[in-house]
Amino acid sequence: MRVTLAVLADYANITREGKLNILGIFDVIHVQNFPVTHPQMQLVMRFEADNVEAGKTKKLEIQLMDEDGKRLFVLGGEFTLGPGQPGEVIGSNQILTINMMKFEKPGNYEFKILINDELKAEVPLKVVEYHSPLKN
User: Fold this and answer.
1) Residue 38 falls within a domain, yes or no?
2) Staple partner for 123: which of 35, 73, 89, 111, CB 3.0–4.6 Å?
3) Is residue 46 part of a domain?
């Protein structure tokens, strides 16, 4: 099992035909003061596996860590890849919507994607404080 795509975006969806649409990919959030609550973001992922993994249940865990190694949240679940064509790679697009995520301080954050307790991908996120220029 591989993670071939993992990004943060403003919005994503999957069409009836299985096409993955992603809008507003980002890795930095600029804010004026802390704490701040980010209204919505989506962690967009694509998993791929060889056909021999079809039908096998996998444990998925998503962790958001701050730069001190503190877990801000952990979300887990299980999924099973459907059958594919012989000799072809099986793909699965997944979108995790995160609403009202609170950041207490600026810094470097990271989403960790684990499958069966094995780290498969990391998605960095920098939360930066900025001050608007003074107006005369």
Assistant:
1) yes
2) 111
3) yes
DSSP state of 33: S
Which one-letter amino acid corresponds to residue 120? K
- CATH number, domain of 13, equals 2.60.40.2550
**How many domains are there within the chain?**
1
Q: Which of 66, 92, 63 is nearest to 79 (CA)?
A: 92
> Looking at residue 33, what is its pLDDT?
93
Is residue 134 included in any domain, yes or no? no
Span 71-110, pLDDT tens digits:
999 999 998 888 878 888 999 999 999 999 999 999 999 9
| Residues of the domain holding 107 | 2-129
Name the region of 16 (left: φ>0; alpha: ψ -120 to 50; beta: rest).
alpha
**pLDDT class for 134, splitting at 50, 70, 90?**
low
Please state the pTM of the whole predicted model: 0.90
